[in-house]
Specification:
Chain A is α/β, with parallel strands linked by helices and 482 residues long. Chain A is built from 15 helices and 20 strands. In chain B, helix 5 packs parallel to helix 6. The chains are: A alpha/beta (482), B alpha/beta (251), C alpha/beta (430).
């Protein structure tokens, strides 16, 4: 791993050299983090006092913590004082004016992904539409969502327009002290999404946010909060489907989900942050805390993720199964190539009786990448008849990569049943030969088999995401065959 | 001449399996190769299809005038060579029809033909599935996954029907089939017999040849063809056994 | 937990005096001193270490701190059943008892003996120095009074079972050591058996090396007193084409910890491990299995069964580690657990760490109730529910016991397991 501190310093320096012009300088903070920075950030965003207090409390907690080192990751130390914690979007003058100015390699990737042309322009950061994407989506369908009583807006707007909901729910699933990166995020998060689905409402459409567009400059610390009231239902898609510019950057998001009785949240992610180049230079450090709290009886939270990007991913979308009969699901495909490192998995915490959880994790490792599944299934003595099924499969491509499985199971209830199965292998020679005998090229055969390997996860994705995910797999594994 | 195998020697892991095998197949002919276990029948099929791991130490294989041994497995397939596997492979998550479509289009592309459109493809697939008396539900299932032995073999012949090969090598297609399944499979092959399509049947038992009548029968023993004849040779074998013939050949 | 170094140094002085009295070689002294200082620097492992996440050795270190003295007193010795034609080595409170041991008829150039009697042998220093990396290996090295040495020359097949018994009758510390070395194509069956009727503190270390093409049956049985502590570590090195079958059964002790580390160093090496831990009362048993595939074409199979009841807590950690050179590794590990009552707990963590691509590795773990279909089946045959349950629990455990090679020992362990389970299941039903 050749990514190091200097890269980050360089990145910060770059921002200053190229990223800002005089007239917006006032909206840009010097690198470094202290209470004053947080006060300024909060003031700039026009936040109420409780929000500032919460940020400061989180900051105090963060200062007492140390960056964890238990994951099987090889990360150079990060200098948190050399990062800028607030920066306004790049001036439109600075962004590429047209697709002609965009890195052709990036465009090639979009082409392979089958992303439509106007979308490609947006993704490449061309100044087509300066509006924050999630807001624009919300605007487009505002009428329809309003009629249903659904609140879907940026986190900043939610703090202003629905402070009572933020105050009530924020940090109740992922408290600031939960972990180092959650504490940091709580202190400095810039924006994100807020969703509230009222009682009995089935959200009339899939909600989606592409964090990509603003992320190049300000999206390192997003916060998402989704509340599904009794009997409601929502499917939420989170896309980071485009590579970012060639920058090495820390991304520490927090996602909190809450389901009341009989409510369902389905949360799908296709993560394709910039993974660094073939030599492992650059790429995103993706340290994300995602947790769902099934508070109500028979409620359900389902996580589906396709993790293809980032230099380093560290992410464990989890479910706290509190409500009786509540259900947690985790479907994951993590693909790593070149020097990427992924350490991802889930925690299923069974507290209520008759709670059920399913974990399906598929890891694909190629090049010099390391790919680990890390998970915890915990059954409390109160979780009568709890049930968990876990299946982790790893596929290795090439003899320089690694695949690892670290499942923890802690069971304190005799009526519970916990099952775990894991396999690691390479693509079977006979499968490959069979496909080639039918006339497929080796690369097509590999893609087909790998996509088949991931089928159980892809089928959980909404249709258009599934198609994108499949294409993404093929792009990510490019060069891994042979 | 469609296929001309000359003095083929092949070994695996340093052990020689084929020891100078020669065989000539003309367009439209059906040949059967019979032989005891370990004689090299399956090795021949694998070597012709291009399986890795076999070392060709001597001899040549010409297919339609080109050096077959020079081609990657998929190129052989695209050139019309089809192998019906003795043990068809299960590929979890890969849809049966999806594989077929990819295979067919790979062949179209190799032949400089346009890709087949979805509607005509489905029509073709349904027609061929009916031919093989296959339930439609098989089409959308993962390749061979959870299929019974008979279903897998039927699926192989169904794939052959869709891909329309020039030379079909059927490796022990009869093994593991009950009599009803055998009839369906044999019928599927017979319906596909054409003047421009050759078939190489590899089998241990004469039984299959009751249903698919070969033009020629060869006996393979110890890596070589020791005897060739017409279909009556199969009956003779059934009656006398391999040992007698091998003794005769040795004597 | 702070150690009192003086306490340990005094105990070591005592051990060194015994060494001198016994006329042991001089190289022993620096080795022991060095080992103790290493241990004192490191201390007892604590919960913050990932490997000790679920097992707290504080009660053991407290006892050990209070008195590291090793016992001399011999009370009622329990010697478990042995075959008349077994070669038995019996150690009472850490000291070899020639009286209780069987006269040994050993193949030429072979050794089946107590360690103290072999310290003058070539290579003895190496045997002792190579204590392995386990957390308490240095403590064992500093303090061990005696242990067993088994050395089988090339091409020798030993028909008799070698039965090594460590039996303890006093509430004190013991430091058993076992060394097993098999030559090329040698073949042997060795049982390491720990049994006590007093609350001892046992820190055991076993080092095994299997030469090219050798075959070893190695079985470790642990039946320590219910208030004793038993922390054991085994390192097994397997050369090319060697095979090792291992059975590991934990039935006793208040806290039992077993670190079984198997290094498949030569191609074609193969290992099979069967483990059983039965944890009831307020007992705690922690089994760590580390399978390290270092060479190509190596194979491992592991199966561990855990039965927990009352306030018993079982821990299992099984790691399959495949190094980059170990292509064509075939490894499978399976852990099954039964929690019989409320209050019991299992913490299990099967792991895969794989750096070679052409491998077939799998692990599985299940924790749960008895199979409902089997239970129903038995009941349709007229077997009352309680009996059926008992049958299935027994079958679950006995599957492992059946792997014991020695018939009389198998019967003995089976009886003891059956009896324990009968009592447990009876309690559950009422």
């Amino acid at each position: 791993m050749s990514t190091n501190e200097t890269d980050i310093e360089e990145l910060v320096a770059k921002k200053y050299k190229h990223g800002f012009i005089t007239d917006i300088e006032s909206e840009t903070f010097e690198p470094g983090l202290d209470e004053d920075v947080i006060r300024r950030l909060s003031k700039l965003k026009g936040e109420p006092q409780f929000m500032l207090d919460w940020r400061l409390k989180s900051f105090a907690i963060w200062q007492k913590m140390r960056q964890p080192n238990w994951a099987k990751l090889n990360i150079e130390p990060i200098d948190y004082q050399s990062i800028s914690y607030y920066s306004a979007p790049k001036s439109p003058d600075d962004a590429p004016k047209s697709l002609d100015e965009v890195d052709p390699k990036l465009l090639e990737t979009y082409e392979k992904l089958g992303i439509p042309l106007h979308e490609r322009a947006k993704l490449a950061g061309v100044a087509v539409d300066a509006v924050f994407d999630s807001v624009s989506v919300a605007t487009t369908f505002k009428g329809k969502l309003n009629d249903a009583g659904v609140i879907f807006c940026s986190f900043s707007d939610a703090v202003k327009e629905h402070p009572e909901l933020i105050e009530k729910y924020l940090g109740t699933v992922v408290p600031p002290r939960d972990n180092y990166f959650a504490a940091l995020n709580s202190a400095v998060f810039s924006d994100g999404s807020f969703v509230y689905i009222p009682k009995g409402v089935r959200c009339p459409m899939e909600l989606s946010t592409y964090f990509r567009i603003n992320a190049a400059n300000t999206g390192q610390f997003e916060r998402t909060l989704i509340i599904a009231a009794e009997g409601s239902h929502v499917s939420y898609l989170e896309g980071c489907t485009a590579p970012q510019r060639d920058e090495n950057q820390l991304h520490a998001a927090v996602v909190e989900l809450i389901t009341e009785q009989d409510a369902v949240i389905k949360y799908s992610t296709v993560q394709n942050w910039y993974p660094g180049d073939e030599e492992g230079k650059g790429g995103i450090y993706n340290f994300v805390t995602k947790r769902g709290d099934c508070r109500g009886a028979r409620s359900k939270i389902s996580w589906t993720q396709v993790e293809a990007g980032s230099a380093v991913t560290w992410k464990y979308p989890s479910c706290v199964l509190r409500g009786e009969g509540s259900v947690g699901e985790f479907y994951s495909v993590a693909v790593t190539n070149n020097y990427q490192q992924a350490d991802t998995g889930t925690k299923m915490i069974h507290i209520g009786a008759n709670t059920r959880s399913t974990i399906i994790a598929k890891g694909i490792s190629a090049g010099k990448a390391q790919n680990a599944y890390r998970g915890l299934v915990k059954i409390f003595p109160t979780a009568k008849n709890a049930r968990n099924y876990t299946q982790c499969d790893s596929l290795l491509m090439g003899d320089q990569c690694g695949a690892h499985t670290f499942p923890y199971m802690e069971v304190k209830e005799p009526s519970a049943i916990v099952e775990h199965e894991a396999t690691t292998s390479k693509i079977a020679e006979d499968q490959l030969f069979y496909c080639r005998q039918r006339g497929l090229s080796e690369e097509d055969a590999v893609n087909m088999i790998v996509n088949g390997f991931c089928k159980d996860v892809f089928r959980e994705l909404p249709m258009e995401f599934a198609v994108e995910a499949q294409a993404l797999m093929n792009v990510s594994l490019e060069g891994a065959v042979g | 001449m469609l296929l001309e195998v000359k003095d083929l020697h092949a070994s695996i892991g340093g052990k020689e399996i084929l020891k100078g095998l020669s065989l000539t197949i003309k367009a439209g002919e059906v040949h059967a190769i019979m032989g005891p276990n370990g004689s090299g029948k399956s090795t021949l099929a694998q070597v012709l299809a291009g399986r890795e791991g076999y070392e060709i130490t001597a001899g040549s294989v010409s297919y339609n005038g080109v050096d077959l041994l020079d081609l990657e497995p998929e190129k052989r397939a695209q050139a019309g060579l089809f192998l019906g596997f003795q043990y068809p492979v299960e590929i979890p998550g890969v849809n049966n029809v999806y594989l077929l479509k990819a295979a067919l289009n790979a062949r179209q592309k190799a032949a400089g033909q346009p890709e087949i459109d979805a509607v005509s493809f489905m029509r073709l697939v349904k027609e061929k599935a009916a031919l093989m008396e296959m339930d439609q539900s098989f089409l959308s299932r993962s390749v061979n996954e959870g299929f019974s032995g008979g279903e897998k073999k039927r699926n192989e012949i169904f794939q052959m029907a869709v891909l329309e090969p020039t030379l079909a090598i059927l490796d022990e297609t009869d093994s593991g089939l009950d009599i009803d399944a055998l009839k369906v499979v044999a019928n599927g092959v017979n319906l596909q017999r054409r003047d421009d399509r050759s078939v190489l049947l590899i089998t241990h038992y004469q039984r299959l040849l009751d249903y698919i009548e070969p033009d020629y029968v060869h006996v393979l023993a110890n890596g070589k063809i020791i005897h060739s004849g017409d279909k009556s040779l199969a009956l003779q074998l059934e009656a006398e056994g391999y040992d007698a013939l091998m003794a005769k050949a040795a004597g | 937990m702070n150690l009192d170094p003086n306490n340990y140094r005094a105990a070591l002085a005592n051990t060194l005096k015994q060494d001198a009295d016994a006329g042991h070689p001089e190289w022993l002294l620096p080795i022991r001193n060095e080992a103790l200082e290493k241990f004192l620097k490191q201390g007892f492992p604590h919960n913050k270490l990932e490997n000790w996440r679920y097992t707290n050795l504080a009660p053991m270190s407290e006892r050990s701190n209070a008195s590291v003295a090793q016992p001399a007193a011999v009370g009622d010795v329990i010697v478990p059943v042995t075959d008349s034609d077994s070669l038995t080595l019996v150690f009472v409170n850490g000291m070899f008892s020639s009286q209780k041991s069987s006269s040994t008829s050993v193949p030429a150039k072979g050794i089946v003996s107590n360690m103290a009697a072999q310290l003058d042998t070539d290579g003895a220093e190496d045997w002792l120095r190579n204590s392995g990396d386990s957390d308490l290996a240095q403590l064992n090295l500093a303090m061990t009074n005696d242990g067993a040495v088994v050395q089988i020359p090339d091409n020798i097949e030993l028909a008799q079972t070698i039965h090594i018994i460590f039996t303890n009758t006093a509430e004190a510390n013991v430091f058993p050591r076992v060394i097993i070395r098999l030559g090329r194509n040698a073949k042997a069956t060795v049982i390491e058996h720990h049994i006590s009727n007093a609350a001892c503190v046992s820190t055991a270390v076993t080092n095994i090396s299997c030469g090219e093409g050798s075959r070893l049956n190695y079985q470790k049985l642990q039946e320590e007193h219910a208030r004793s502590f038993h922390v054991a570590a085994q390192t097994i090195k397997l050369a090319k084409d060697s095979h090792c079958d291992i059975v590991n059964i934990d039935l006793g002790a208040a806290i039992a910890r077993n670190d079984l580390r198997i290094l498949l160093q030569g191609s074609g090496a193969e290992v099979g491990v069967n483990g059983l831990f039965l944890v009831d009362g307020e007992r705690h048993a922690d089994n760590h299995l580390h399978l390290e595939h270092q060479a190509a074409h190596t194979r491992s199979r592991a199966h561990y069964a855990g039965v927990m009841a009352n306030k018993g807590r079982g821990v299992f950690n099984g790691m399959i580690h495949v190094l980059q050179a170990a292509q064509k590794t075939d490894a499978a590990l399976n852990n099954k657990n039964l929690l019989l009552t409320q209050g019991a707990e299992i913490d299990t963590k099967p792991e895969l760490e794989i750096y070679a691509d052409d491998v077939k590795c799998a692990h599985g773990s299940t924790t749960g109730q008895l199979d409902a279909a089997s239970l129903f089946y038995l009941r349709t045959r007229g077997v009352p529910q309680q009996v059926a349950r008992n049958m299935l629990v027994q079958a679950f455990a006995v599957e492992v016991v059946q792997q014991l090679a020695n018939e009389s020992l198998r019967e003995y362990i089976q009886n003891s397991v059956e009896q324990r389970l009968n009592e447990l299941v009876a309690v559950i039903e009422t």
